[in-house]
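Dear Dr. K.,

Following up on our conversation at the group meeting, I've run the structure prediction for Dipeptidylpeptidase IV N-terminal domain-containing protein from Eiseniibacteriota bacterium. I'm pasting the input sequence below exactly as I used it, so you can double-check it against your construct before we proceed with anything downstream. Let me know if the numbering doesn't match what you have in your notebook.
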Amino acid sequence: MVTMGEAGSSQARSLPVVWRPVTIHGVSRITHRRAGGAALLVLAMALLHACDHRGSRVVSPAGVVWDRITPPEATEADRPDWRGDSITFQVSAQGLDRVAVAREDGSGLEIEPELSAAGARSPRWVRGGLLAYSSDLAGSEDLWYREVATGRTRRLTAFPGMEWTPAPRPGSPGLVYVEGVDPDSGRLVLVPDTSAAPLGKIYLTPASLHAGEPDWSPAGDQICFSTREPNGTSQIWRLSLTDTVAIQLTVAPSSSPPGVPQLDRGPKWSPDGSRILMASNRGGLWGVWALSPSGEAQGLAVIAQDLPGSELRHPTWSADGKAILVSTNRSGDRALWKLSHLEY
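The predicted structure tokens came back this morning:
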């Protein structure tokens, strides 16, 4: 039996976790059609600056269309979340992190105000009109709710330590978040019921796994997340709430270029549950990849790669899975771009 600690209690207990890395026999298999496309992309990326530029639109050699959707006033646009015809994301305003909302095409931008010098980070939709995010408004980094229409906020957690990057559980009042001093490298914690008083919490991963960026499967029974490895690489893992077995899905090659560790990060489950989206710098270029939930040996396909020198972060799906939103500095400043005309 798992005993859930009360809010602010040190009695929260961890579920048993088994680490089961995927063993790759030989070179990781990439879909052949996509492997050829990836090679063409690498050869052609240097030509992208002269390839069909129409304002803020770029057509990649693979046919994927990139459209910038955030205006310059949405400074350092990052960590997007897409629900229906609305998006939410993190921006910087006068050097402080803020939550922003807009329509899916970037219009109707609203940057949510905060009191004093408090920051607000990593927003996610709980449902239409309601956001979960983290903020240091009360001193420590805690999880908060915000009603978009009224601006009303409510503090959700007041645990010791710091809580980051909330991911609401589909079809449930629960959520998972990262506990620790680093929002992308800590312990995954499950709050089974956000309506309970006091709140309970269950540790899903040990601190030694350095987990971050959690996201739920559509059924709400599995979580994908990234980890930071001692060798500087970052990998994607998956954990089931049924057996709490943590399974490594991606594996860094043993012969990475010196000083360029492989980084797989920002996983997001597809709306139909068949794929996990991730950002990766494989091949020396940042890009968006589709990963099988069973591991890269069972399916790994490049969707699109960014320009040389650009850094792509935090891809997320549209509700129908036909478009992707990413944060990238390909235009010089960090902005949100929509990828459409996808083939994978």
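Two things stood out to me. The domain at 18-253+260-340 is CATH 2.120.10.30 (Neuraminidase). The two ends are 43 Å apart (CA to CA).

Best regards,
J.T.
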